[in-house]
Design brief:
This protein is of the alpha+beta class and about 150 residues long. About 25% of the residues lie in helices and about 30% in strands. It has a domain of about 80 residues.
């Protein structure tokens, strides 16, 4: 019977350690459309049209706000470990610009110009009074006058 308890304790300890190790496994996420180099090599500037680009790269992630002739393909890979904020491990932004006839004019791989801003975990201060417990308990004393004429 003693061997059974020892084996059970060893098994439980092993399972506990294994579950703790797997809980810290990073979670990978891919968002957007990460364009691969082989896809870019298939595009022929001054020859391919918008339809060709849609077929080769898919729909753009976004278009320029004031120019429908500029398309952006944005893709991002992130890794999240436990309770920490996700970190960007890979990011690629491709800009495809067209002329007025809808033919590819230029393709640019936009370098990462992102500024890594820290998250502020503070609370926004609000205006008002900070009242102590005693002020809350005794706050209404003296506010009412029993002898006031009606």
């Amino acid at each position: 019977m003693k061997n059974f308890h020892k084996k059970l304790l060893v098994t439980l300890a092993f399972l506990t350690i294994a579950s703790m190790g797997s809980s810290c496994t990073p979670t990978h996420s891919v968002r957007g459309n990460i364009v691969q180099d082989y896809q870019l090599s298939e595009i022929v500037p001054l020859q391919d049209s918008r339809t060709d680009i849609l077929r080769k790269l898919g729909s753009p992630t976004t278009k320029a706000p004031f120019d429908d002739n500029v398309w952006y393909y944005i893709g991002q890979e992130t890794e999240k470990r436990g309770i920490f904020d996700p970190k960007v491990t890979d990011e690629r932004i491709i800009m495809v610009s067209f002329n007025d006839e809808g033919i590819v004019q230029d393709i640019k791989d936009i370098e990462n110009e992102r500024i890594d801003l820290p998250y502020a975990r503070n609370k926004t201060p609000t205006s008002g009074n900070e009242v102590t417990v005693m002020q809350q308990l005794l706050g209404n004393l003296g506010k009412f006058n029993k002898n006031a004429p009606e």
